[in-house]
User: What shape does this take?
Amino acid sequence: MNPTITIVRVLACAGLLLACGPAAFAQVDDAASPPPNTLTATLSTAPLQTFPGPTDSNTPLVWIGDRLTVFSSQSGRTTRATGSSLDDAAMPEDAEPGMAYTDDIGSGRWLEAVIRDDETGRLYGWYHNEIPTDCPQGIRLWPQIGAAISDDDGATWDDLGIILTPREGTVSCDTEHPMTDGGIGDFSVILDNNEDPTQRFVYFLFSSYGGDLEEQGISFARMRWIDRDHPLDRFSGESAAFKWDGQDWVAPGIGGRSVAIFHDAEQVTWTSIANNGYWGPSVHWNVDLQRFIVLMSRSRGGNYESAGIFMTYTTTLDDPRSWAQPKVVIGDSQGWYPQVVGDPSIQGTDKLGGQHVRYFNQGQSRFFIDFSVDAPIDAASELR
Assistant: This one.
């Protein structure tokens, strides 16, 4: 790859499955433009550090007492490593993955997010599951999101079922994309900071690859934290998670229509070989800046060829329109799945960091990131 931060709108539509116009390119609505981004992410070189296991997804980390556990997924198989820190975290010496599910769903599960309940010790995990489609042009894959729990520190997991699926009718072989034919996945998860247990939510930031352009890109769902043990209704099968529909959290998690953010003139539908859009968000709470910060990729065509890594943030999770205008962090030689890992002094993870964090991309870290505020923040200007 030779990625660049320069994103060019495709002017010629020859060969595209969708014609130029509203269906192929997003229309810019100044009234809906994101708030300005007043943070800077400064990179500095760091000694090489890698996750203990191979990864082709987001990699969740969780502290259990004074021990760090790292879950790395590749090709639908997750490994578990433990240690006193990321420096010495290791997988079992017997070459076993260190974790297993208690059932077989017939396809791979990439464990992309884990949150520990400090009162009970139970781990709550959410996975990316891919379904193959036998298209005329070859196998294409579409993702969906499921939930799981573990009561033995992540060694074994009980699958609670699929809780987030794409809108019905949006998975289609009518695509030029070499890998994907729709779906929702490549996500991260974080709890809000609400101390009222009846009003506390777990938020899903996911990549949406199907439907119209308004649906494609970085999308959101949320679920009440008190529903975490039973995310599916035992009688109806309805999900306790609801998607953001552009105005409110009312779209059903199973088959509902979500509305993405960050539409601009450069966006090109995922069904095009010239696809261009944001995907693969990783979110953390920054204790020093008191903001939720996301790193995410942007494609520039083909099989998710990288146009760089971008940063956005918000002070509140309950309105996706509050996320700031994406700002480029790094544009050279970047792969997939950017994320941070916070400092061990605060038991930092992929979900918790400070001003100074480790930056990882495809499971490797060669840089630190220092986040700073460009100018005094007018809180009213950041919220819609």
User: Anything to note?
Assistant: Residues 124 and 228 are 8 Å apart (CA to CA). The helical segments are 379-382. The first strand starts at residue 39 and ends at 50. The chain has one domain: 30-382.
